[in-house]
Amino acid sequence: MNNTVLLVEDDRMLAEMYEEKLSMEGYKVIQAEDGKIALKKAKKQPNVILLDIMMPGLNGFEVLKELKQDMETTSIPVIVLTNVGSESADSDQDLALSLGAECYLVKSYHTPDEVVSKINTILNRTK
Fold it and tell me: Which of 49, 56, 63, 127 could form a disulfide linkage to 6, CB 3.0–4.6 angstroms apart?
């Protein structure tokens, strides 16, 4: 397989946990700890992007918007993976989907196994 996942996450512990899980499932993982780095690394054409919302510099919504406006990265599926489970979660989810995200997952509601399963579903659909 050897699909590549761009993991955009500023929490080191979470990033390492997801990287380990994805690697065990056979994925190559590229990490970015903020939005600007994510936009640069997206040019390497990962198969899917796992994108956090709350980050230093550009937030996930801004990154998503730029990814979808750039011809080089517009077709890369983006999964928003965030801890924003507040009262604004519904409008955040609507915004993420309207900006072109494939889906919106709240970290505390989904195990790493479920996240990997979602990635597999999206990648199988886009083949």
Answer: 49
Task: Summarize pLDDT for 36-91 with one digit per residue, the tens.
Answer: 999 999 999 999 999 999 888 899 999 999 999 999 999 999 999 988 656 666 78
Contact 102, 75 (CB under 8 A): no
d(CA 16, CA 104): 21
Q: Where are the domains of the chain?
A: 4-126
Strands (E), 4-102: 4-8, 28-32, 48-51, 78-82
61, 95 Cβ separation under 8 angstroms: yes
Instruction: Burial-class residue 46 by CB neighbours within 10 Å (0-12, 13-18, 19+).
Output: buried
- Evaluate whether 31 touches 9 at the Cβ level (below 8 Å): yes
Instruction: Give the homologous superfamily in CATH for domain 4-126.
Output: Response regulator (3.40.50.2300)
Q: Using an 8 Å Cβ cutoff, are 107 and 82 in contact?
A: yes
